């Protein structure tokens, strides 16, 4: 078999919120043997990847059908069709050199009703209908587990983050960040996997969040200081998630264009997480975590009820955490050419449920 190699020239971007495009900072070249992924650059995403249990939301308005005027959704039957496969030339397409599936989301564009952030993101669909319990999965000890589509399941991905926003408020942890994988519950998220890189840094940081899951009447409750009781508990994997302007470059992190992988495996009641930097090299670096999704009281937060009674689904792709709301990540929208978008390329994407 003929080997194909990926050679990426990655340009870091200078910090700032000026109206002009940032100057290139550092160029780094990566060479990867992509033979093992068996990807064909001439094929559409559905012809290289099994998309049969996914739908996708894209950052533009639907112009027809029941979703007209809302964020564009491509349903699972259309997305997985290998005879007339779906491609979007801006937001969801095959890389013409590597065969990777590319997800892109700008800082400002139409999005889903309950979010400020744009996305080019897959949502797990185990059934045809969105509101069918069989569409989602649960942990083994869920009292009505037999009514759902799966007990647990596995999501595996190997990818590069190619771009994060070059504008944003350094005091906001979601500025310069993108979510590349999730488990979403009915209200909250037991897992978000995030990559964040400051514009002046060569390296970015990989982290994951567990969101506390209160009972419904406490979803919006606050403490004595006015802070929500429901919040994300962040965990660093490579680098540090909360770096600020002037912080040292996290050289133990991951560069734009540098390959890494994650595996999420919910078995029984336990969520197992595995993160590997440079997975195909002679010296991969792997870190693992485990979370009991049933126990609750996560890290001593008694508001957390855990996810035993909740239903969940996997998500993967690009969920840009940079938006233009001052109260949120306070990013700008100066256009794609200024670097105000997020992009990731997936070489492996496998959902097993």
From TrEMBL:
Q: Which intervals hold domain Alginate lyase?
A: 49-352
**Keyword list, A-Z:** Lyase, Signal
Q: List residues traversing the bilayer.
A: none
Q: Which Gene3D superfamilies match?
A: 2.60.120.200
**Short name of one Pfam family for this protein?**
Alginate_lyase2
Q: Which residues form a coiled coil?
A: none
Gene Ontology MF, one = lyase activity
Q: Which residues form the signal peptide?
A: 1-21
| Domain of life of the native organism | Bacteria
Quote the protein name from its UniProt record.
Polysaccharide lyase family 7 protein
Q: Which species does this protein come from?
A: Shewanella gaetbuli
């Amino acid at each position: 078999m003929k080997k194909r190699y990926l050679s990426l020239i990655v340009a870091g971007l200078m910090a700032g919120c000026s109206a002009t495009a940032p100057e290139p900072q550092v160029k780094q070249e990566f060479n990867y043997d992509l033979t093992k992924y068996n990807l064909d650059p001439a094929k559409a995403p559905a012809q290289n990847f099994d998309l049969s249990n996914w739908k996708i939301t894209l950052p533009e308005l639907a112009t027809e059908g029941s979703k007209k005027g809302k964020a564009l959704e491509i349903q699972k039957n259309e997305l997985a069709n290998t005879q007339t496969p779906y491609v979007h030339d801006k937001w969801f397409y095959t890389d013409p050199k590597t065969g990777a599936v590319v997800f892109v989301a700008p800082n400002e564009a139409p999005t889903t009703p309950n979010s400020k952030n744009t996305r080019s993101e897959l949502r797990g669909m185990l059934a045809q209908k969105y509101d069918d319990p069989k569409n989602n999965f649960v942990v083994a000890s869920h009292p009505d587990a037999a009514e759902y589509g799966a007990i647990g399941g596995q999501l595996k991905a190997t990818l590069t983050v190619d771009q994060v926003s070059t504008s944003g408020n350094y005091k906001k942890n979601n500025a310069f960040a993108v979510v590349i994988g999730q488990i979403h519950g009915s209200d909250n998220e037991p897992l978000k996997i995030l990559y964040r890189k400051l514009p002046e840094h060569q390296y970015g940081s990989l982290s994951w969040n567990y969101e506390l899951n209160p009972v419904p009447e406490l979803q919006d409750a606050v403490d004595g200081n006015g802070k929500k009781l429901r919040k994300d508990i962040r965990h660093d994997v490579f680098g540090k998630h909360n770096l600020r302007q002037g912080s040292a470059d996290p050289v133990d992190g991951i560069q734009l264009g540098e390959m890494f992988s994650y595996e999420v495996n919910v078995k029984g009641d336990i969520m197992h997480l595995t993160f590997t930097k440079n997975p195909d090299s002679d010296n991969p670096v792997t870190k693992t975590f485990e979370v009991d999704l049933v126990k609750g009281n996560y890290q001593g937060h008694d508001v957390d009820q855990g996810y035993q009674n909740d239903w969940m689904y996997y998500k993967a792709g690009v969920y840009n955490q940079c938006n233009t709301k001052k109260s949120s990540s306070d990013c700008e929208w100066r256009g794609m050419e200024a670097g105000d978008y997020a992009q990731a390329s997936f070489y492996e994407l496998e959902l097993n449920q």
